[in-house]
């Protein structure tokens, strides 16, 4: 969906040798030779895809006079890379390379590049900004900032220990046998049991079909991902946190 307030272009850049697909949004009235615009990298959550969940964010940013880049993560959507693999540090590398790509885009003010992320994308935004001073401002919306704490928070104490021990047992078997197992995404972070309907991904236009499985190593990677440990490195650059409760 587009309107006359912004333009959207399919673009791509490379990260760790993989072609990363993205949408590039601009204000509709911007023309080559106009003053350079501030730019925002818009990061989606655990789904890993540019055209679900947070798709309204880059549209809104473009309407407000920003240039916005919304990438797939490696291995998700139309991007190259191994499937059913969710590695936060690899996704952080995608963010660094997205910033480098923006430095090559006509009309970007390279001194005013920021990053927005929601849910797991917020975790990646914090991590990337902690180690990349080119990211001058950060917005974290309902973020995951300690993977183990997040996954424990959505379970009872009994279910948490059962889940944690199951992940550990699978890891021990995998390193001995080389056999890998996959897990359904919503068995990692269960949906609200009180919800009357399970939420569905709203796909913009006709995207690649969503694969709701990841390998069990992805859960281990989430356990170890703790952007809280590095958030202080962003200072004195500004960070805006949005939190939500229920």
List keywords for this structure.
alpha/beta, Rossmann fold, 7 helices
Describe the protein's architecture and organization.
The chain has helices at residues 56-63, 88-102, 120-131, 147-153, 157-177, 185-188, 216-224; strands at 6-15, 18-27, 37-43, 67-71, 108-118, 135-141, 182-184, 213-215, 239-242. It has 246 residues and is of the alpha/beta class. The protein has a single domain (6-242), classed as Rossmann fold (3-Layer(aba) Sandwich). A seven-stranded mixed β-sheet has the order 1-2-4-3-5-6-9. Strands 7-8 form a two-stranded antiparallel ribbon. Helix 1 links the parallel strand 3 and strand 4. Helix 2 crosses helix 3 (120-131), helix 4 crosses helix 7 (216-224) and helix 5 crosses helix 7 (216-224). The longest helix has 21 residues, at 157-177.
A few lines on this structure:
This protein is an alpha/beta fold. It is built from seven helices and nine strands, in the order E-E-E-H-E-H-E-H-E-H-H-E-H-E-H-E.
Strand line-up across the major sheet: 1-2-4-3-5-6-9
For CATH, the homologous superfamily is named as: Alpha/Beta hydrolase fold, catalytic domain
How many domains comprise the coordinates?
1
What does the overall shape look like? globular
Approximately what portion of the residues adopt beta-strand conformation? 15-25%
Please mark out the parts with pLDDT under 50 across 5 or more consecutive residues, or reply none: none
The largest pleated sheet is described as:
7 strands, mixed
Order of helices and strands: EEEHEHEHEHHEHEHE
Class based on secondary structure composition and strand pairing: alpha/beta
How widely separated are the two ends?
A: 31 Å
Average pLDDT metric: 92
Any guess at the CATH architecture?
Answer: 3-Layer(aba) Sandwich
**CATH fold node name:** Rossmann fold
The CATH class is Alpha Beta
According to DSSP, the number of beta strands is 9
Helix content: 25-40%
Number of helices: 7
